[in-house]
Design a protein that fits this description.
With 242 residues, the chain is α/β, with parallel strands linked by helices. It is 41% helix and 15% strand. The model has no long low-confidence stretch (mean pLDDT 96). The structure holds 3-methylbut-3-enyl trihydrogen diphosphate (2 copies) and magnesium ion (MG).
Length: 242
């Protein structure tokens, strides 16, 4: 158990959905004179620990930003290495999760992804589809704007065929990749960058934001606990008065 009794966390107020922009792998590697790929490798180890920590805390949804629609602009070797790591991650996912009650869901545009990754995604999603402990959502070739474009196109189709007559917030939410998933309560970005970089731009409209200077490979369950503690000290008003 990663969280001992002395933890100051209020276990009654754990965020239901935590979203993380895992940033800083490249800088972590550079600081050590290593290749960026080594940074991504280390980042993938961090991810395993954080998934476990969220599971132990009883978080219901964890969404991580693994590869953005803009990340294709990186050098080909780095993109290839990231795809390889993601493939390995998916391949080993069940063994790593050691029978834990974790459901894996992948969001993003799959059309541009290599075939071997798409079949691994399908396999893992199917294999874990009956789990209901932690929903672990991996954003892969994900872009918030592209997601909204896809939703708008789907809605246009519905209108053309007379399937809907009214467009409202609920309908748009239902046409996003994240349909059925509650909005993030807490959104964390590591590495000191203060921006969303096209991550969950519709869904995060009322998320509590937490920016950490720690580079992703150095991020530990203790840092996660700090972020949750900060969240627990906040008052969410959603535009109202309290
Ligand atoms: C985040 O780390 C991982 C991905 C974007 C895939 P970066 O690779 O962006 O690391 P920095 O920001 O260059 O340090
Ligand atoms: C966001 O990080 C994407 C992921 C973490 C997958 P980036 O490193 O790509 O974002 P920018 O370029 O600094 O905004
Ligand atoms: Mg970065």
């Amino acid at each position: 158990m990663l969280f001992k009794k002395q933890s100051k966390l209020d276990m009654e107020n754990i965020p239901e959905h935590i979203a993380i922009i895992m940033d800083g792998n490249g800088r972590w590697a550079k600081k050590r004179g290593l290749s960026r790929s080594m940074g991504h490798r280390e980042g993938s180890r961090t991810l395993k620990k954080i998934v476990e920590a969220c599971y132990d805390l009883g978080v219901k949804y964890l969404t991580v930003y693994a590869f953005s629609t803009e990340n294709w602009s990186r050098p080909k070797e780095e993109v290839d290495e990231l795809m390889k790591l993601l493939y390995e991650y998916l391949q080993n996912a069940e063994r790593e999760l050691k029978g834990k009650n974790v459901r894996i869901i992948v969001i993003g545009d799959r059309k541009k992804l290599p075939d071997n990754i798409v079949s691994e995604i399908n396999r893992v999603e199917e294999k874990t589809s009956h789990n209901h402990g932690l929903n672990f959502i991996i954003a892969l070739n994900y872009g918030g704007r592209q997601e909204i474009v896809d939703a708008v196109n789907a809605i246009a189709e519905d209108i053309r065929y007379g399937r809907i007559t009214e467009i409202n917030e609920e309908l748009i939410s239902q046409r996003l990749y994240t349909r059925g998933i509650p909005d993030p309560d807490l959104l964390i970005r590591t590495s000191g960058e203060l921006r969303l970089s096209n991550f969950l731009i519709w869904q995060s409209s009322y998320s509590e934001l937490f920016f950490s200077d720690v580079l992703w490979p150095d991020f530990t369950p203790k840092h996660l606990e700090e972020a949750i503690l900060s969240y627990q000290g906040r008052q969410r008003r959603f535009g109202g008065v309290k």
